[in-house]
Amino acid sequence: MRFLLVLASVALSTSAQSRFSIAGRDVTLWKPAGPAPASGFPLVVFSHGYAGCATQSKFLTEALAHAGYLVAAPNHHDALCGGAAGHRFTRPQESFIEDGAWSDATYRDRAADIGALLDAVLAARSFDGVPVDAGRVGLAGHSLGGYTVLGLAGAWPSWKDSRVKAVLALSPYCEPYVRNGDLAHLNAPVMYQGGTLDLGMTPTVRRPGGAYELSGAPKYYVELNGAAHFAWTDLNPTYQAIIVQYSVAFFDRYLKGNPAALEPLMKTPYPRLISFLGMDSK
Fold this sequence. Notes:
Elements: E1 2-5, E2 17-22, E3 25-30, E4 41-47, H1 58-66, E5 70-74, H2 108-124, E6 126-127, E7 130-142, H3 144-155, E8 164-170, H4 175-180, E9 190-195, H5 202-206, H6 211-214, E10 219-224, H7 240-255, E11 274-279
Parallel strand pairs: 4-5, 4-7, 7-8, 8-9, 9-10
Antiparallel strand pairs: 1-11, 2-3, 3-5, 6-7, 10-11
């Protein structure tokens, strides 16, 4: 199915933010709002962009917590912003313009960060007093974080983590997967988000033979008119309401079992035009 959608903005509330060491990783945690479900809260792990940090997109991590998700974000080894202790600038493990050199060895440390975090939190079935439902785990990632979470969904088969039930790829670096990966056999629904001015990343997602077309269903693609690469960070507030609406609805659909979660977004007018592609079954 193909839809052209527009959307209304919403007001967001903030949630408590804390910092912990989990499995030896520096992790920022946002606790969910509201009473705990009987099975525990669903968990979303956020992976930041290259030289970003766990708190680079607080507008989204806070909104997810407010929507009833426990949100955890590790500082990967390349983290620089947000007081990432002991980190300093390092060159990319491979050049972003030489995608043919990338393999499942490239940034495997990021996959290990998320795997170790999941091992620790899910084994305990709770964290800092918040019960967690091990059967409802989602991943979200921006830029190199998008590369990371797609890999864990199976774009690199050797990274595939069966615990992942939904993946949100925000302006993701995915050229290595288009060239050498396995997007057709992701083990989780995926939503890609891109922008018409996100010239370094979005064309690889939307072009014929690109990441969206190659990905197996269920899959979605949201494109924001005029958005550039940092629209998914706190640096640019212009698109935050739209990003939150689609992101929360996607996770509500696949982590909370609400099949109607995305439907209102096809009916609500919004002055900033966006395009939306969706295929909700294999």
